[in-house]
Amino acid sequence: MNEIRVLIADDQRLMREGLATLLSLAPDMRIVAQASDGAEAITRARELQPDVILMDVQMPNLDGIAATKTIRAELPRTQIIILTTFDDDEYLFSGLRAGACGYLLKDIPSEQLAEAIRAARRGDSPISPNVARKLVNAVTQLPRASTAPLADPLSEREREVLRLMACGMSNKEIAEQLVIAEGTAKNHVSNILSKLDARDRAQAVARGKELGMV
């Protein structure tokens, strides 16, 4: 079992320690550090290069969005999940644009948080259901741009996968929905990102909307 090295960044000590205690119970996770603000998160990330960072948004000295942007630019292999009490649209889109792979609310059950960390490590995008609805609503309200057709069109199955991605589903959830292997779902997602020339899942969904696929 591959160990997942996790860094927790939150300005509330009780929250940091509580998360560390809960996640330490998972046999495949190790909490390598805690940070009380964005600046400290950057420093510890540079030192330790964790696999996944749980990043709060509102913190003193440097907020989580700015820290996420810096860490992702320097450590592209480190996945960052925004973990916050706010489901505000501005934080959601700012966090994703900064490079976060997921956006979760702090009322998430501990077992789901652990699974979200595993999903992030695999390259998925864990997003809380109500936040995913906001993302889908925002995408569907975008004006449809006039774009050239794809040089390599998506297959019908890839279109199905893209629509499920727009609902915020992880590779595992897509696989269960379509009754296929998780590895197959992951391959479909990779093909979709490549064909749509998208940096991440959120950008792929937006591009799919422009092309009338979502």
Any overview of this molecule?
This protein is of the alpha/beta class. The chain folds into 2 domains: 4-128, 3-Layer(aba) Sandwich (Rossmann fold), CATH 3.40.50; 142-210, Orthogonal Bundle (Arc Repressor Mutant, subunit A), CATH 1.10.10. The chain is built from 10 helices and 5 strands, in the order βαβαβαβαβαααααα. The protein has a 5-stranded parallel beta sheet with strand order 2-1-3-4-5, sandwiched between helices. α3 links the parallel β3 (52-55) and β4. The longest helix has 14 residues, at 182-195. The model has no long low-confidence stretch (mean pLDDT 88).
Topology:
Elements (H helix, E strand, L loop, with lengths): L3 E6 L3 H12 L4 E7 L2 H11 L3 E4 L8 H11 L4 E6 L4 H10 L3 E4 L4 H13 L6 H12 L15 H11 L4 H8 L3 H14 L5 H10 L4
Parallel strand pairs: 1-2, 1-3, 3-4, 4-5
Number of domains: 2
Mean pLDDT: 88
Strand order of the largest sheet: 2-1-3-4-5
Secondary-structure-based class equals alpha/beta
Looking at the overall shape, the CATH architecture of the largest domain is 3-Layer(aba) Sandwich
Strand content: 5-15%
Query: What is the overall number of helices?
Result: 10
**CATH evolutionary superfamily of the largest domain:** Response regulator
Outline the low-pLDDT stretches: none
Tertiary shape: globular
> What pattern of helices and strands is seen along the backbone?
EHEHEHEHEHHHHHH
Main β-sheet description: 5 strands, parallel
Please write the CATH class name of the largest domain: Alpha Beta
Please tell me how large the radius of gyration is.
17 Å
N-end to C-end Cα span: 37 Å
